Amino acid sequence: MPEITYLEAIRTALWDEMKRDERVFIIGEDIGRYGGAFGVTHGMLDEFGEKRIIETPISEPSIIGAAIGAALLGMRPIVEIMFMDFTLLTFDQLGNQAAKMHYMFGGKATVPMVVRMPSGSGTGAAAQHSQSLETLLMHMPGLIVVTPSTPYDAKGLLLTAIRDPNPVCFIEHKVLYKSKGEVPEGEYTIPFGVADVKRKGTDLTIVSNGIMIHKSIAVANRLAQEGIEVEVVDPRTMVPLDTKTIIDSVKKTGKLLVVHEACETAGWAGEIMAVVSSSRAFDYLDAPMRRLTGKNVPIPYNRVLERAAVPQEEDIEREIRAILNGEY
Amino acid sequence: MGKVQEKESFIEKASRLKLSKEQLLEMYRTMCLIRQFELMADKLYALGKVHGTMHLSAGQEAVAVGISRATRQDDYLINHHRGHGHFISKKADINMMMAEFLGKEAGYCKGRGGSMHIADFSSHNLGANGIVGGGIPHSLGVGLAIQMQGLDQICISIFGDGASNEGVFHETLNMAALWKLPVLYVCENNKYGMSMDIERVSAKLPIAQRAESYGIPWYYIDGNDLLTVFETTRDSVERIRSGNGPVFIETQTYRYFGHSKSDRNLYRTKEEIENWRSTKDPIMRFGNQMIESGMMTKENAEGFDKEALSIIETAVEFAEASPDPHPSTVMEYVYA
Lengths: 328, 336
Description:
The complex is a heterodimer of chains A (328) and B (336).
Chain A: E1 3-5, H1 6-20, E2 24-28, H2 44-48, E3 53-55, H3 60-72, E4 76-80, H4 91-98, H5 101-104, E5 114-119, H6 134-138, E6 144-146, H7 151-163, E7 168-173, E8 180-182, E9 196-199, E10 204-208, H8 211-224, E11 230-234, E12 237-239, H9 243-253, E13 256-263, H10 268-277, E14 290-294, H11 303-309, H12 313-324
Parallel strand pairs in A: 2-3, 2-4, 4-5, 5-7, 6-7, 10-11, 10-13, 13-14
Antiparallel strand pairs in A: 1-8, 6-12, 9-11
Helix pairs in contact in A: 1-7, 3-4, 8-12
Chain B: H1 10-16, H2 21-46, H3 61-70, E1 76-78, H4 84-89, H5 94-101, H6 138-148, E2 155-160, H7 167-178, E3 183-189, E4 192-193, E5 196-197, H8 198-201, E6 218-222, H9 226-244, E7 247-252, H10 270-279, H11 282-292, H12 298-321
Parallel strand pairs in B: 1-2, 2-3, 3-7, 6-7
Antiparallel strand pairs in B: 4-5
Helix pairs in contact in B: 2-3, 2-11, 2-12, 3-9, 5-12
């Protein structure tokens, strides 16, 4: 299987789906000649033309609104929001309009659209270009929330997202754009609501997403040399959430650490713990469930501070040891 | 781009607009039906039969009927929260509307939406919106889809005076003009955004002149004069359907009822309301013109009111006899 980057996997999914289905178009800022802020749509203007690669003024709420209107008429719009932080400008269109239309119109309207949005810190982009806001989107019934962590997942989940009849928030971690992985050339889809056990283990379950999956696996591989086997569960879609895989894993390991870059207060770690604590897995726990998350702080600019604001590998290792050694 | 109307009689104007007596009578009857629907809605609320809120459009009937009769049934409509009149004039099923108003399973949205979210996608009525200005940007996508699919429909995007101070209003006008989208923008100015007089919240009036800055042709017209609304819409639609991009019409009108059920009209005088009712009422004005021109009698007019009331009463019976949605279905339709 060829190895390609996370960014290339996303572009491939967009490209293939635009070839396959003429209802699909992309709309957003600087996605034409510039290729998008991160280069995801590079080359697509030449291939598909400006009728299907629609460049817009800087008007995020109305870009999402335009996608909604087109979706109502049976098109399959894909929106690129340059940074996830800018979705805060669009919350009426995402939260009041797209998310609710199917329900409040009694099932008669569908809004099949995808909103792609790069998230996360690590690039020195500071407080307004580095957030992980998936929890806000998870709190709006009607939206699907996808957080791919690998090139393979990105392509398979994006194809599913484009074909899904619901509004899908597709959250791409910007630091992962250059990461590589094996991706089949042909078409394949990954269903929503199916978690992936990214690393098998028996001693402790980590539930994580996005870039934190990679940090967790790196730590787990090091600890394996000491005979500690950590299982890493990637929900892949936060909504819908595959609770069964999480519960089964915790039943097996008896210990849970939730790791996310998003900040702590009311973050989704609490949701995972609530799912586990109200399930049969509670009976299998032999240590308190713990969370390791981004701090409750805007992402700072300075490299040292930026690193300190979100979980790093040494933090994950420390937390795992604390749980295993009863140091909590 | 204001229009200078030459003095012409009602009959001359109707004849110039090629409107037959039957068409004029149908327009009158539709306005009566809207008025009776709104009066009944108010009555049902007073009787404690309405669970939620409502936004009544009595006084604004000529805007709804003028626009719908100058556009096509298969044109797309995106509406604001005060939408009953527009749906009725787009030939919505009155029984299903009333059932939705009373929150019943037989309603347009199966009781999930209520007065503020009535939609009928099968007749290209893309829904009313509870967020002021929230539906305006959807017109961009509808316009783009019409262009991409090579259709000859247009999109009619209707919003109130209050919405013109939302950011999406400006964003949308800019893009619609830029992309020459087939959209008719109608600002239904009823003078108040809830309690705020438009003159207290807008630096420069009329609202329609804002379209000028985006290069969009605009009109500021008497929204209570049915044939003026009809003619301006007809001319605008012709331009839009020919691929020349959007047009903006501001219709000056007035609502008789409060903003919603909790409104005690503390921000306007009884005299002001009474003055609009007695001198500018759209149904009275059009009715008098019809009678004076011999196309309708007083008895006809009374008969049309009774006919409308009877349709509305049947709808109430239908709605009241319909079951509530079952509680076990509360989670249906969250996801498609």
